[in-house]
Design brief:
By secondary structure, the chain is of the alpha/beta class. The protein is globular and about 50 Å long.
């Protein structure tokens, strides 16, 4: 028997999430939610946008599952936490073409896309995006609401703090720590730890922005 699933969000990221859920099987996608009233009544990949948060009152937390398919780390985290507090279960979605090692823990509401490799003893927090063909080596620690972009490579024992964004094609060498709410630029090579609320770019990566401005830039 298929599990009823609603997708919260209707942008390009939601399309990829739908594809993952369809390929996994076991879900009956009932429709989509979007807080932008302009989206209501439209269809995304054949699924109707039913409305916004007001639709939640008609759903049953014991039966229905919701996946937050929103690219912004801060918005995804805010909505996801609200849903969890309301008693909804947020499934983890893992593409069949991903490779997941032994003793990997995956938090609720996280999506792992095609071509991703997660090696053993890694812990991935809730509400994360591990995007196409990225890799996280052994003993990694990925905090809540992190986005690891396509083709990014994290070596062994790398930690990435809550709400951070690791840019497309970037690399982080072994044992380094990326703080919370950081932005790692596309193609950057991180050889040193990165403090909270920092934007780091280049080869090797250097901080170009610190403080609240960096956190806002990741929204």
């Amino acid at each position: 028997m298929s599990t009823p699933l609603f997708i919260y969000g209707s942008s390009g990221h939601a399309k990829v999430v739908i594809d993952v859920a369809e390929k996994m099987g076991g879900f009956d996608i009932r429709g989509m939610l979007d807080d932008n009233p302009v989206a209501t009544g439209s269809c995304v990949m054949g699924y109707p946008v039913l409305g916004g948060a007001e639709i939640l009152t008609s759903l049953d937390p014991k039966r229905d599952r919701i996946f937050v398919a929103i690219g912004s780390n801060t918005v995804r985290q805010r909505i996801g936490r609200r849903l969890i507090a309301a008693g909804f279960a947020l499934p983890a979605l893992v593409h069949p073409a991903a490779v997941i090692g032994r003793e990997v823990m995956i938090g609720q509401g996280t999506v792992i896309m095609a071509g991703v490799v997660v090696n053993p003893a890694t812990v991935i927090g809730s509400l994360c995006i591990l995007n196409t063909c990225c890799s996280v080596d052994h003993d990694g620690r990925i905090g809540e609401a992190v986005h690891v972009s396509p083709g990014a490579r994290l070596a062994g024992n790398v930690s990435v703090g809550e709400g951070s964004w690791v840019g497309i094609g970037s690399s982080i060498i072994e044992g380094r720590t990326i703080g919370c709410r950081c932005m790692i630029g596309g193609g950057a090579v991180v050889i040193d730890d990165v403090a909270d609320d920092t934007t780091a770019v280049g080869v090797p990566a250097r901080a170009i922005r610190r403080g609240s401005a960096a956190a806002k830039a990741g929204v």
